[in-house]
Hints:
Layout: E1 2-6, H1 10-21, E2 25-29, H2 33-40, H3 51-61, E3 64-67, H4 70-73, E4 79-82, H5 97-109, E5 115-118, H6 126-140, E6 148-151, H7 161-166, E7 171-174, H8 178-188, E8 198-201, H9 203-234, H10 238-246, H11 267-280, H12 286-298, H13 301-309, E9 318-322, H14 337-347, E10 351-355, H15 360-367, E11 372-373, E12 386-389, H16 401-407, E13 412-415, H17 422-427, E14 431-433
Parallel strand pairs: 1-2, 1-4, 2-3, 4-5, 5-6, 7-8, 9-10, 9-12, 10-11, 12-13, 13-14
Helix pairs in contact: 1-3, 5-6, 9-11, 9-12, 11-12
Amino acid sequence: MKITMVGTGYVGLVSGTCFAEAGINVTCIDIDADKIKKLNEGIVPIYEPGLEKMIKKNVKSGRLKFSTDLASDLDGTEVVFSAVGTPPDEDGSADLSYVLQVAKEVGQNMTDYLVFVTKSTVPIGTAKKVKKVIADELKKRNLDIDFDVASNPEFLKEGSAVQDFMKPDRIVVGVESEKAEKIIKRLYKPFVLNGHPVIFMDIPSAEMTKYAANAMLAAKISFMNDIANLCEIVGADVTNVRKGIGSDSRIGNKFIYAGTGYGGSCFPKDVKALIKTAEENNYSLEILKAVENVNERQKSVLYNKLYAYFKGALKDKKVAIWGLSFKPNTDDMREAPSLVLIRKLLNAGAKVVAYDPVAIEEAKRILGDSIEYAKNKYETLKDADALLLVTEWNEFRVPDYKKMEELMRVKVVFDGRNIYDPAEMKENGFDYFGIGR
């Protein structure tokens, strides 16, 4: 079986590689010639545990190829996945220009039946637009070639994406024909041997499922952060509240950890796009508007605590930051809370020294030399006036308190992920501030 994956961003690269791992012949297409050249040389543009090794293995076997030429790759392809970006426009709606361009090129070059599948997150109704674009291009060529469109949203978590794809808890597919359903079933057969289902439905429902899933998770995060802020005011501890409500099977214990807000490529973009979709249909998603507002406010919570601690006197203070990526096990800094925090610190005249296990190069690309970058976590602490924990990487969980005391000028820790024990911090002579504690 042969498939074509258009787009070698996070979704396309992980998906294409995992399909190849299952024995399927995959060509990943991208217009970025430099990226394709590097991928063919084994240089992977993103950090994702297990991905680089899997790419090299499947390139060597001949099952995984990288190219800039979509037109010449369509011969013999049964499924074309569109995994190109859908960045937000200024009004919050998703930009479909890349998706529709892929559909146009497919219509201009396809020679036999295929299934065109939207893999990247797209607004409800995108499949109809894709179908029209392909049909229009075939009409221009005076060709009557049958094809199908489908929606197959991804549910990959950065940091565990390879595992998520290889052993999914569910696969959601929107189709319009039995023929397309049969092909997709065959394609995904190697991945559902664990008994988890491929859930087939109509295309609009599949498109909505992706947005609804991300919006629900974002809502849980913002809800817990809102509760955490109230906990501080009334003297409760959000970590105890989390345990109390998380034991309720109707709520569950996932995505109810208080912190500095969500970031990344999905939640911020998808919440905005769903709000915009509702507005275009004369409906207002009031809950999601609140979710977005709470999240933006939460990204400033550590700065506000620091500001209060030093009574606004942050000029020339040296602030150490542990963690830059929006979550552990990724170098992704898109919409990362660390960026909001750092920019506020710099505007206040503070000096920032940061360390992250894998996101330093990405931080340099975004922030340049506006901050200092340390080679390890303790290097950030030399003469530091405060430590701010932003991303809960495992290597930050059990610090050497004695070493910290020797290095820091002021013994104060602002824990943006509640990974430290307040009592233990106090016993070791540190002032400690968590979220909702």
